[in-house]
Structures are given as C-alpha cells and as structure tokens.
Amino acid sequence: MAVFKAENVEDLYEIGEVLGSGHFGQVKRVSERSTGISWAGKFLKIRRKGCSPLGMDRASVEHEVEILQALKHPNIVMLKDVFESRSEVVLVLELISGGELFDFIAEKDNLLEIEAIEFMKQILQGLKFMHHSNIAHFDLKPENIMLSNKVTPHPNIKLIDFGLAHHFVPGQEYKSTSGTPQYVAPEVISFEPLSTAADMWSIGVITYILLSGMSPFQGDTDEETLRNVVAMKYEFEDLYFKTTSSMAKDFIQKLLVKDPRERMTADECLLHPWIKPITRKQVANRNRSSINMRSFKRFNAKRKWKMSFNMVFVCNRLANLRLLCKHRSNPDLLQRQCESDGEDSETNPSSLLRRRLSSSS
User: Which parts pass through the membrane (predicted)?
Assistant: First the structure.
C-alpha cells in the first residue's frame, strides 16, 4: 500500500528552482533541511471535480508510488518521500542529472560494443531486480533510461517512469494495450496475458537501435509499425550492421522472439556470451566491433525532434481546451471532454493498440 505523508513538504525540504515542466506539474530541485542533500521534487496536480485537464488521477499516482516504494536498486530511480495536500501530490525522488543515455552516447565520436555492453549490463541488472520482484516496467524506451550524472567516468544507469508498470500477483492474469509502438511486444498488441517477458522484447529493440541507429519495426505510421511487430518483420541490413559482432546479433535474435516463453530472461541475458564472454575469441570479437555512430546520431536527432514536436502539439491542445472550458456551459459534458483530452495527451503511449490495428485493416 502506498504511503503518503500529510505533512507540508516545505517543513522538511527547501524548494529550489524549476528543473522541468510536464503536462501535470513541475519538477523542482528540493534540498532536505536536515542534511542539505538535493533531491528532485515532482509536484503533481491532482484532478478534482470540474474541468481540470492538467490534473492527474490520484489512483494513477498511488499506483506508481506503490511500485517505486517496492523497488530499491542502484539502477532504478529512488523514491524517498511522498507528500499529499488537497490539490497536489509531491514525490521526492533521486536527483538524476546525467540526462538520457542515448543523448550521452550521441555526443561521442565513436563507441565500441564493449562500452555499449557496460550500459546494457546495468539496464539488465535493474530489470533482473524488478522481475524477481514480479514487477514489469512495460514502457522501456530511450526516454526512460537515464544517467545518474555525467561527471563520473562510469555513470550509473537509472530506469525511470513507472506509470505503466505492473506488480504481478500469482494466479491473476494481466492484460494491457498500453505501450509505445516501436518498443511494444507482440502479445501486447494481440491483447494476450502479459508477463515480464514483454520488457525483454523492448530490450531487444533498444539493443538493435543502439548498435545500428535503426529501429527494427518502425513504419511510416503507428499502425504500420504495429503490423511489422506482429509480422516479426525485421532484418540485419549490412549497411547498418557491418561493424556489429555476430554475438550481438544473436543476443537480439534471442529477444525478438514472438513466443514470450522462448525469450531470454534478464538473468539469461546477463549470462549471454555478448554480455559475459566465455572464450578469448568472444572477447576479441566484442573489442573489434563498434556501433554505427553516424546512423545512431541521425536516429537520436530525429527522436528528439519528434519529442519536441509532440510537446508543442500537446500544449496547443491543452491551451485550446482551456479556452473551451471558459465558454462551455454544460459542466458534466465539459468534465468528460477534459478528462478525455488529458488521457489522450499524456506521453502518447498509443493505448488501445489492438483497436488501431483492427480499425485500419
């Protein structure tokens, strides 16, 4: 059960500058008064009765808090405190200052596979802990893989954003159609019972992109992307994988498997020869191979542009909605419209993927 404090956050923390803004609130630097340690305070508006398109549903916040309070691992963002007032909830989280892993890599001129493997190993260690706790992330993608900082020679990976995560209960079936098209597993699209194996599919996609700068299933539309996933339509084009080791390709192939029961687990990934080589030849192959930096930089630039475009689009929708709220006189209808818009305008996880597929067939 999620634990919320009724105290005033300002009694225990000094509120600092704004670090970022989202659809439902702001992230501010906060300093613990007793220790002086800096944290990130996530100030979230809670949706109340009436038109509140910027408010979050309290149950969604409570769900994420429960997940984070159950996960204490060096490669998972740490939740320290949660405060609740009448109009908002404040999550006091570990301050992560290193930015996204993909942005960090894109700044480099070159990167050997052995260096990429060190990052993948940390991601897998975080996932291993989650999965042993019967928790799946269900939204693994570059935006949710961060670095603790950039100043240390070997920065720590931090997995973030557990809004779609699920804690499995033995004997209870779980299905969901939420996810991001490029990274979502086939069983999500087919609305089949899910397991932690869905995260491993996403790891396969992320590894493919990291090494080649190409997305294995990306189509011109979300619907085309989803169809490619279901059809298992991908290949290792020599143009993008000419510097990739055969072990890396084998690693990806053992994850991009349609039957979730046949996919490697996080434990098995950590023992795969690409991650943990057994022979000198395997070590040599990794050390000679590198990622396609030119293609990777291009992919990352396009990804960042798309994120910025989506944010502007969402902000415009919300601004128009606020104007609508001022002029419409039917509060019940208005509330439904605001709630619908708020749900649609979150991080565009392309919920109801199965409906998209069926409607375009």
Answer: none
- The topology under which CATH files domain 101-293 is Transferase(Phosphotransferase); domain 1 (1.10.510)
Q: What is the pLDDT, as a whole number, of residue 110? A: 92
**How many C-beta atoms lie closer than 10 Å to residue 154's C-beta?**
8
- Residue 259 appears among annotated catalytic residues: no
* 274 burial level (CB within 10 Å; 0-12, 13-18, 19+): buried
Who contacts 94 (Cβ-Cβ below 8 Å, separation ≥6)? 39, 40, 77, 78, 79, 80, 148, 158
CATH architecture group of domain 17-26+39-93: 2-Layer Sandwich (3.30)
Task: Kindly report, residue by residue over 215-266, the tens digit of the pLDDT.
Answer: 999 999 999 999 999 999 899 999 999 999 999 999 999 999 999 999 999 9
From 57, 81, 139, 220, active-site residue: 139
Q: Is 49 annotated as a binding residue?
A: no
Element housing 146 (H / E): strand 145-147
